[in-house]
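Example 3.
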Amino acid sequence: MPELPEVETVRRKLLPHLVGHRIDGFEIYDHRLRYPVRSRNLQRWVVGRSVEDIQRRSKYLLIHLEKNGCLVIHFGMSGRIILCAADQPREDHVHVLFRLDDTRELRFRDPRRFGLVDALESSELERDRRFATLGLEPLSDEFTGRELYDRSRGSRKPVKNFLMDSTRVVGVGHIYASEALFLAGVHPKRAAGRLGPGRWESLVASVRQVLTAAIERGGTTLRDFHDSSGAKGEFQDHLRVYDRSGEECVRCGGRIRRVVLAGRSTYYCPGCQR
DNA sequence: CGGGCGGCCTGGAGGC
DNA sequence: TGCCTCCAGGCCGCCC
C-alpha cells in the first residue's frame, strides 16, 4: 500500500546508491503486471545508460537516465524494489530485474502484480496519459487551501474520496486520507464542495503535516512496505485512526469507527470529526 | 460528465 | 493441522 511517503522514502534511500551507475541489462521473468512489461521500451531507454537522478511524481518513481531515458516504476499494492548483490538468491515474485555496472542488481518484486515497470523518453512524460491527468502534488507550493477550495466547488464527492482522487490530489491513499481528516477534524463523508475556505486551509495543512511526518519516519509498514534495503517504516506507531477501529481516540477518548466508503475501509473518530 | 463500483491479484488471517 | 473464505487496496474501465 505504498502512498506518497513510502515512494518518497524509497526514492531518498535509493538515490545515493544508484546515481552514477549504469544499467547494463535486464531480465523479465513475468511480464504480467498492471500492464504488460514492454521489453522493447526497457531496451531502448534504459540499457547502457547511467542513472542521473531519481524523482517522484504522484506514486510513481522516476529513474532518470542519460540521454533522456526514464525508467518508470509504480508499486501498486505490494510492489517493492530490492537493491542487492547479484549473487543473492532471487526472491519469489521478482518479475523484472536490472543488472548494474558493478556486482549489484535492482529487482522489482510484486506478489500481487498491481505494479508497473515501463520506460520512455523523459520529455514524453508530461504527454503520457498516465501523467497528463494527475492533480496537485500535496507537498508543492500550489497545494493551498485556497486552490483546493476553488477546485472543490460543486463536488458532491465525500471529501475523503476527493483527497484520494488522483486527478485532484496525488499520493494520498486510504491511510493518509484518514489520518489527515482526523487531524483537521473533518468527517470523511462530508461533501468536498461544502467545505468552507477555513476548513480547506486546515485540511491542506493536515495533509502536509501527516505526509511530512510519515516521510520523516520512513513511511508506514502495516503489512508489505519495505524500502530498497529491506527496512520497515515507523509511522504505523503514530497512526491515530487508521486500522484502529474500536480503539480509544487519542484526543477525546471516544471509540474509533470503521465505515466503508466507495467500497474501502475508512477510519474516523465520530467525536472529533463532524 | 461526475461519481460509484467491480475486477485485477496473492498472502495472510480467521473460522470451523 | 488443513481447508475454505474473506480481506487488503491503487488504478482503470465500465456503468448509470
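The mean pLDDT of chain A is 93. Chain A has seven helices and ten strands.
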